[in-house]
Design brief:
This protein is of the alpha/beta class. The chain is 43% helix and 22% strand. The protein is built from nine helices and twelve strands. It has helices at 11-23, 34-39, 41-45, 61-71, 85-93, 106-122, 155-166, 174-182, 190-204, and strands at 3-7, 27-31, 49-52, 76-80, 98-101, 127-130, 133-136, 141-144, 149-152, 171-173, 214-217, 221-224. A five-stranded parallel β-sheet has the order 2-1-3-4-5, sandwiched between helices. A four-stranded antiparallel β-sheet has the order 6-7-8-9, with no helix packed on it. Strands 10-12-11 form a three-stranded antiparallel β-sheet. The chain is elongated, with a radius of gyration of 19 Å. It starts with a strand and ends with a strand.
Length: 228
Amino acid sequence: MIQVALVEDEPSIADMIRFNLELDGYAVETYTTGKSVLENLESIAHCDLVILDVMLPDKSGIELCQLIRTKSAVPVIFVSAKGTTEDRINGLKAGANDYLPKPFDLEELLLRINALTQFTAKNPVSRFEIGHYIIDFETFEVTDQRDATNIELTKKEIELLKLFQEKDGLVISRDEILDRVWGTDHYPTTRTIDNYILSFRKLFENDPKNPRYFHSVRGVGYKFTSQE
């Protein structure tokens, strides 16, 4: 079942969204304050979708989105009464995947939610194979199938591998990687990403200097290809 974190302080709107999502088979946990989000940040980061209001009584939804991005690449959709072009741009810059101004059409919201969660719904992924290695996204372990040895990865390494798995075959810019994995309130350099890619090549590639999986795209970023 797809897990949704709904952050909305207006009871009528929260009840309407929750009711309709539950009718469609989603599991919904509702939060009404920034404080409650901060107290449950880890569990929210592990949801399949976050629906986030910008104007909360005690903390900006923009700040909360940035904090969520430090933990996870979970899809985030803003639903907010602040609907100017500048507001939408600020929301997307904070790491959101979509932004829907209030008042909104319920069917449109449900369609946008479906678009953001359809990959999860059809392909719930907790394990991922690269060559003869199996990555377990839940235990953070990599198993070499040749000799059953295990290597433990960091949370950032797992988040980066999740992003590559999601974007298999597509070029990902360094800026997108920084926004999705590190968040906009952290300031690593692009060299940080390069070092992670070098580590991945040493671990997963038979010949790190001639990579099969992790490719550099000059002036843009990287592309992961699971197939030759």
